């Protein structure tokens, strides 16, 4: 396999300011790096990782653009509104959002609890909505036209993954939360088209991140074997489709899910 390029996406994002939730690690970090590499200022939203501020500083230094980290739990609507306003003042005006922060609970449905439901849905559905609403409010209030948001959903919005011998992966709340996101994307795209705001989803297949690092080797091999390209993705392979959707080149694309699943 030829090396997968990390840099060199030919987008010109100079003048853009983009918020990436969960932008300090995994897929979000790769998207942050690609946006900064294209010349955008980037605000990383993180929940609690100790090194998020240093990650932002490093990406900023490597790309010669402003990248700042903001601690904010996306499930707290009021805090999200405040933080987005602060970002807009400090490194804005914000032009794009990548609502990427997400979590999973893996256990049999017979053992799932209300706490598990809350853990997944308050981030994957409510957190995505909070971020989308806060960005849309900034744009509607300032009469900014052309805002684009990309929600990082999952192939799990459509597919129940198997771990071998016909057994499912046991993440019903994760799967159903991502299916909810599919509908959210379509609904928000329809409502906000009047403000020239576009809303789309990128649906990754398996990606090598902390979320998948705990997978047993046998399960991992089984999963990779089910992917036509025969492997998990690297995080930065989610960046090209995301940047395309954030860019003006995607001016007629809204309300869609784009699968990047090998
Ligand atoms: P990681 O587990 O590597 O990172 C999760 C990120 O989300 C972290 O930056 C974390 O911040 C942030 N986060 C979690 N909860 C909150 C919260 N309440 N408020 C603010 N930030 C929060 O995830 P991935 O990179 O693997 O996944 C990113 C997205 O892609 C998720 O939506 C996931 O569902 C989706 N996805 C992932 C796939 C995969 O195979 N990895 C496949 C398909 C979809 P902190 O570091 O501070 O905890």
From TrEMBL:
GO MF terms here are:
oxidoreductase activity, acting on NAD(P)H, oxygen as acceptor; oxidoreductase activity, acting on the CH-OH group of donors, NAD or NADP as acceptor
Print the keywords alphabetically.
Answer: NADP, Oxidoreductase
Residues making up the signal peptide according to the UniProt record: none
The record's Pfam families line, in alphabetical order, gives: adh_short_C2
In this chain the Ketoreductase domain maps to: 16-162
* Lineage: superkingdom: Eukaryota
Q: Which PROSITE patterns match?
A: ADH_SHORT
Which InterPro entries did the record assign? KR_dom (IPR057326), NAD(P)-bd_dom_sf (IPR036291), Sc_DH/Rdtase_CS (IPR020904), SDR_fam (IPR002347)
Q: Which family does it belong to?
A: Belongs to the short-chain dehydrogenases/reductases (SDR) family.
Name of the protein described by the UniProt record: NAD(P)-binding protein
């Amino acid at each position: 396999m030829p090396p997968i390029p990390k840099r060199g996406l030919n987008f010109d994002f100079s003048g853009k300011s983009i918020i990436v939730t969960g932008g300090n690690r995994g897929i979000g970090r790769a998207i942050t790096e690609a946006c900064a590499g294209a010349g955008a200022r980037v605000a990383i939203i993180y929940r609690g990782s100790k090194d998020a501020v240093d990650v932002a500083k490093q990406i900023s230094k490597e790309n010669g653009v402003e990248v700042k980290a903001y601690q904010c739990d996306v499930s707290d609507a009021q805090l999200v509104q405040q933080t987005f306003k602060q970002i807009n003042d400090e490194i804005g005006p914000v032009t794009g959002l990548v609502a990427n922060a997400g979590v999973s609970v893996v256990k049999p449905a017979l053992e799932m609890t209300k706490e598990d439901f809350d853990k997944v849905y308050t981030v994957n559905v409510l957190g995505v909505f909070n971020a989308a609403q806060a960005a849309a409010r900034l744009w509607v209030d300032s009469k900014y036209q052309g805002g684009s948001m990309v929600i990082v959903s999952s192939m799990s919005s459509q597919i129940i993954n198997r771990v071998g011998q016909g057994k499912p992966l046991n993440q019903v709340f994760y799967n159903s939360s991502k299916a909810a996101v599919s509908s959210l994307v379509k609904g928000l795209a329809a409502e906000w088209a009047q403000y020239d705001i576009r809303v789309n989803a990128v649906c990754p297949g398996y990606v090598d991140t902390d979320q998948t690092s705990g997978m047993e080797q046998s399960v991992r091999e089984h999963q990779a074997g089910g992917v036509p390209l025969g492997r998990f993705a690297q995080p930065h392979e989610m960046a090209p489709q995301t940047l395309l959707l954030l860019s003006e080149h995607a001016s007629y694309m809204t309300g869609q899910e784009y699968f990047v699943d090998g």
